[in-house]
Design brief:
Elements lengths: L13 E5 L5 H10 L5 E5 L11 H17 L4 E4 L2 H14 L5 E3 L4 H7 L4 E6 L1 H5 L1 H10 L4 E5 L4 H6 L6 H17 L3 E5 L7 H8 L4 E3 L2 H15 L11 E5 L5 H11 L5 E3 L3
Parallel strand pairs: 1-2, 1-3, 2-9, 3-4, 5-6, 5-7, 7-8, 9-10
Helix pairs in contact: 1-10, 2-3, 4-6, 8-9
């Protein structure tokens, strides 16, 4: 079936996917940037986390979800997952050439441009650090910047479970941030869409002098530009519809973090992959 040529409603919804609830930070930014646009959010919670998985497996998952979202009428796909962006974004663009994709790129460029100390920290998953996208960004934009990396092992699981202020999350972040602070970082780049939900703890540990960069607003602005260029940007004052979908068998797996992270009480669909 040719998913690129599906008949789409006008304006078409934006399809957003992540391994779990991290992409809700991107959905939140999209809702603020393009409030009238219909959105479809899919959380692949049956297979979270993506970070430790082989890149080829993440690519397969991303292809499967993209096909589903296109089948639901999505016009633009936002890969709201740094790991999936690193593993699959270029491949997806080649596979679906008529579909515009917006992905997550670690904000190393603005961090390198604005650092005063010359040292920045990046928090991301192992798969993101191993991907060509991250290596390319560092090579192009951080030649004169010391970039320190930390994989935050276990933090995604803590955020998925809603333990944003728990002792375990604090321990994970402290273990990574303290060496960075001792080295003189003045900027922290969040290279995983789950991590913006931990900004209060990160800022508390790092202190007010350290800038924390959340890439979600830039992704939302780029998505708006893509929609406008295609004539698909929704207008008007009415809020667009939002569909929430999880691959977990229990809708509550997504409903609980929706309430906790976004203050949203909404029905959740389930789809088995």
């Amino acid at each position: 079936m040719d998913f690129d040529n599906h008949a789409r409603p006008t304006p078409p919804p934006v399809g957003i996917f992540d391994s779990g609830v991290g992409g809700l930070s991107v959905l939140r930014a999209l809702r603020q940037q393009i409030p009238a646009q219909p959105l479809i959010y899919l959380a692949d919670q049956a297979r979270v986390p993506y970070g430790p998985r082989p890149l080829e497996e993440v690519r397969q998952f991303s292809d499967q979800i993209t096909r589903y979202l296109l089948d639901q009428g999505a016009g633009v796909i936002v890969v709201a997952c740094n790991t999936a962006s690193a593993a699959a974004l270029r491949w997806l663009r080649q596979r679906y050439p008529e579909t515009p994709f917006v992905g997550m790129e670690p904000a190393v460029k603005p961090a390198s441009e604005h650092t005063r100390s010359g040292v920045v920290g990046v928090l991301a998953t192992p798969a993101t650090f191993q991907g060509e996208l991250y290596a390319s960004v560092v090579e192009r934009f951080a030649q004169h910047t010391r970039v320190m990396e930390y994989t935050c092992p276990g933090l995604v699981e803590e955020i998925e479970a809603g333990r944003l202020n728990g002792e375990r999350a604090r321990q994970i972040l402290t273990a990574g941030l303290l060496p960075m602070l001792e080295a003189g970082i003045d900027t922290v780049v969040l290279g995983c869409t789950h991590y913006p939900f931990a900004i209060p703890i990160i800022q508390e540990i790092a202190g007010p002098h350290v800038r924390v960069i959340d890439p979600a607003p830039a992704v939302a602005r780029q998505t708006a530009r893509v929609l406008e260029s295609r004539g698909w940007l929704a207008a008007g004052d009415a809020l667009g519809s939002v569909r929430y979908i999880t691959t977990a068998p229990d809708p509550a797996t997504l409903q609980h973090p929706l309430r906790l992270l976004l203050g949203v009480d909404a029905p959740v669909e389930t789809v088995p992959f």
